[in-house]
Design goal:
The protein is an alpha+beta fold. It contains 15 helices and 26 strands. The protein has a 10-stranded antiparallel β-barrel.
């Protein structure tokens, strides 16, 4: 229930001052105090409680009716003295009017137990419902089944909603220990959208007041239009600070099903997710964000499913403010897709599956990683399903039923030598062969990782290529290309191979300036085509080749100034 309390409290802060109207009728109840017709307004929200019973209250009935009277400090003092063995509220209704939007909520059979100094030991509600009426005619409806909470600190909730932080180092304090919602439903009539969830759980919530009143931040967010106003740096900083002002040990939602209006409208789409979780949320960073058993059935007949997705150490600030990956690890497993592709034809489909993929980004310098590693395991693209699409027709002509590709990449910046080394960069295709690349860049200063784009770009232009090492292994693709060429030209594969080898060698020599080292490269490539087992090329320069060299010098001059190794296994 605390999430909904927090939501209401955030809206309460919209008013400049809290005004309390005690309209309650007090009377004695068995083993406690009964209160009838309790109604009070704070900010833009009015609360109505027809009846409640309080057992073992440390405050008098009159004091209880003024519990939320005054400013943040006064309310905190009142709550510090608020203790009760048990509070029973059969029904509670709220109404909030703001900017033409009307929000109405109703809670049923609310029970609060073991309230000590403003901290609720346990809370439970049989259910809750909220409706939202918007000025443009839109309408939303939320329904929650049984809600249960433990360790809800009313004093900290009030501070989050009503106070503003002046100390940037204010400590985060516990807000909610545990909360569960057995099921929920969200409906948007305009979009014909319905979202249902199974059990929702959260634990270990901590928070602190924001430097800007929540209502003001919400208003700025609603008015923010990046296409008209551009980037609002101050707003972005406040958003990052808002995320950093909360901690959450864990959050989980299960059995999510969403259906909505598709294109065409009479064919709705469906999204199903078995489980979504987020753990170790602190300092505007999500430790682990996981999605399991995702499935999408689109209105055009497309289907996408994903068995597992994980993002680790996702930094909210990086996503909001910077161009670099805002996480240290990402992985996906069991991706399967079958999508229509009307651009390629009525019967053409994009069918592919991915066994797995992962990437790591570590050793951050400012906002950018200085070490990366990634892999892709078996991306299989069904070529036959594409029909006669031009993008895949050539591979079909070569006899491939599907493309089965795997890849890997790794790179690291070495501060001591001011070098950036990418190795290995590898692409492998089933029945095709494999290519591996290693590139070393020199004169790479730390300025490359600057958060200022103009600085990082200038530093990148100053870097130079010190060596390039390339290896090709296997010749499945080369053999199929030659076989197809021989068939089309009505000649032998041997003659086609010899012609291709000669043509490739001549082209390389011409493009590379015609020097001795260019010929060495051309001869090695020709030998590989003749017998495609293994080709190795290495070009190195002690001083490096930078952007200015590439603009001022001819390719042949650059090649001849470098160390060149070229060989092919015969």
């Amino acid at each position: 229930m605390s999430l909904h309390i927090m939501e209401r409290k955030a809206r309460l802060a919209a008013g400049a001052a809290a005004i309390f109207f005690p309209l309650a009728v007090l009377h004695a109840a068995e083993n406690g105090v009964g209160v009838d017709n309790l109604a009070f307004t704070v900010g833009a929200t009015t609360y109505r409680i027809p009846h409640l019973d309080i057992q073992g209250a440390a405050l008098s009935a009159a004091e209880l009716t003024h519990l939320f009277d005054g400013d943040n400090k006064a309310i905190d003092a009142h709550l510090a003295n608020f203790s009760a063995k048990k509070i029973v509220i059969p029904s509670l209704a709220t109404e909030t009017r703001s900017g033409g939007t009307i929000q109405r909520s109703a809670y049923r059979d609310v029970t609060l137990e073991n309230v000590v100094a403003g901290r609720i030991g346990a809370a439970r509600a049989a259910g809750a419902e909220q409706t939202v009426e918007k000025p443009d005619g839109g309408a939303e409806r939320y329904v929650w089944s049984v809600l249960a909470s433990k360790g809800v600190d009313l004093r900290q909730l009030a501070r989050l909603a009503l106070a503003t932080r002046t100390d940037p180092n204010e400590a985060l304090k516990p807000v909610v220990d545990e909360e569960t919602v057995e099921s929920s439903t969200f409906e948007d009539k305009r979009e014909n959208l319905v979202v249902k969830t199974g059990r929702l759980t959260l634990a270990g919530v901590k928070g602190r007041a924001l430097p800007t009143p929540p209502a003001q931040l919400f208003e700025r967010l609603e008015a923010f239009d990046p296409e008209k106003t551009g980037t609002d740096a101050a707003l972005l900083r406040e958003l990052v600070d808002a995320f950093a002002s909360f901690q959450l040990a864990s959050l989980e939602a299960r059995d999510i099903v969403a259906t909505g209006k598709g294109q065409p409208a009479e064919k709705p789409y469906t999204v199903k997710i078995g489980r979504v979780s987020a753990n170790r949320i602190a300092s505007a960073t999500v430790g682990d964000f996981t999605i399991e058993d995702f499935a999408l059935a689109s209105s055009d007949g497309g289907k996408v499913s994903l068995k597992h997705f994980l993002m680790r150490d996702a930094r909210v600030g990086a996503f909001i403010q910077g161009p670099y990956p805002g996480f240290t690890h990402i992985e996906a497993k069991g991706l399967d897709a079958d999508l229509p592709d009307p651009r390629a034809g009525d019967n053409s489909r994009m069918k592919f599956r991915l066994e797995g993929a992962a990437a790591d980004f570590t050793n951050f310098r400012e906002i950018a990683p200085t070490k990366i590693a990634g892999r892709m395991d078996r991306l299989v693209i069904d070529l036959a399903a594409r029909g006669e699409a031009l993008s895949t027709a050539q591979f079909v002509a070569l006899g491939y039923r599907d493309l089965d590709l795997s890849a890997a990449v790794a790179g690291e910046w070495i501060e001591k030598s001011q070098e950036a080394i990418f190795a290995p960069v590898r692409l492998e295709g089933k029945e095709m062969g494999a290519a591996t690349l290693k590139v070393t860049f020199g004169d790479v200063s730390s300025a490359v990782f600057s958060s200022m784009t103009i600085v990082s770009r200038a530093a990148a232009l100053a870097a130079s290529v010190k060596s390039v090492d390339f290896t090709a292994e296997g010749g499945g693709l080369v053999d199929r290309v030659l076989a197809l060429e021989a068939k089309e030209q009505k000649t032998s594969i041997e003659k086609a191979r010899a012609d291709y080898a000669k043509t490739a060698s001549m082209a390389i020599v011409q493009l590379a300036g015609g020097g001795e080292k260019a010929k060495r490269i051309g001869d090695a490539v020709a030998a590989y085509i003749q017998k495609p087992k293994r080709l190795h090329l290495r070009l190195a320069s002690e001083r490096g080749v930078n952007a200015l060299d590439a603009l001022a010098r001819k390719p042949g001059e650059i090649i001849e100034s470098m160390e060149v190794e070229a060989s092919a296994e015969r």
